[in-house]
Amino acid sequence: MSKALRVGITGGIGSGKSAVTERLQSRGIEVVDADIVAREVVEAGSSALEKIAQHFGKEVISADGNLDRAALRRIVFSDPDQRLWLERLTHPLIGESIAQQLATAASSYAVLSSPLLLESSQRDFVDHIVVVDVPESVQISRTKARDNNSEELVRAIMAAQMSRDSRLAAADTVIDNSGALAELDQQVTALHEKLLRLSAAR
Predict the structure, then answer these.
(1) Mean pLDDT of all residues in the chain?
(2) Which residues does the record give as ATP binding sites (predicted)?
(3) How many independent structural domains does the chain possess?
(4) At a CB cut-off of 8 Å and minimum separation 6, what does 98 contact?
(5) pTM for the whole structure
(6) Cβ distance 30 to 105 under 8 Å?
(7) Half-sphere exposure of residue 17, counting CA atoms within 13 Å on the CB side?
(8) Which segments are annotated as binding site for ATP?
(9) Which of 109, 130, 175, 187 is spaced 20 to 30 A from 15 at the CA atom?
(10) H-helix or E-strand containing 36?
């Protein structure tokens, strides 16, 4: 028997990946969230966090000893060299943890949710790519409301991500999340049924 289908779910910032993955989790599907893994590898006391503090200074460490993600984000999204340094440190650690979690997933198919799925070697972990898509104006308004970020910062984050056209070109399935939640529910139901069929056919 071949291993379960591995599905990558991605989308630009503010596209609503988590709304899709939450609906799949409620159906018993195991989801590995790359954002959660990225937080775990830099937890207080980790060697990665120690290296980040040495490189960027104490201003990226909050009073409780955890990473001040907002402070770090401001630095790395205004300086590509600093972002590259951070990625070289964290990406191998994140990849290792993701591979381990996908290997032990026991559901009909397993999901990797990652904003950097298509920009990194993480795409090698998956067999089928789902892109959650919204217009860029929706990305900006949702992210500003959710994270209380300036439009300038949101646009800088979007500029650092793969372009919308490139993401859509790489997709095996596209979920349009610009409408009402009822429309999203219908699309996720259809996606789930499709993925069950693809997994059963392996």
Answers:
(1) 93
(2) 14-19
(3) 1
(4) 32, 34, 37, 112, 114, 122, 125
(5) 0.85
(6) yes
(7) 24
(8) 14-19
(9) 109
(10) helix 34-40
Residues in the chain: 202
Q: What is the rounded distance in angstroms from the CA atom of residue 29 to the CA atom of residue 17?
A: 15
β-pairing, 173-176 with 109-113?
Answer: unpaired
Summarised one tens digit per residue, pLDDT across range 46-60 is: 999 999 999 999 999
Containing domain of residue 20, as a range? 5-200
Q: Annotated binding site, which residues?
A: 14-19
Q: The dihedral of CA 168, 106, 124, 19: what is its sign?
A: positive
Q: What is the pLDDT of residues 141-187, one digit of tens each?
A: 888 888 787 888 888 888 888 899 999 999 999 999 999 999 999 99
Does the pLDDT of residue 129 top 50, yes or no?
yes
DSSP assignments along 83-150, one per residue: HHHHHHHHHHHHHHHHHHHHHH--SSEEEEE-TTTTTSGGGGG-SEEEEEE--HHHHHHHHHHHH---
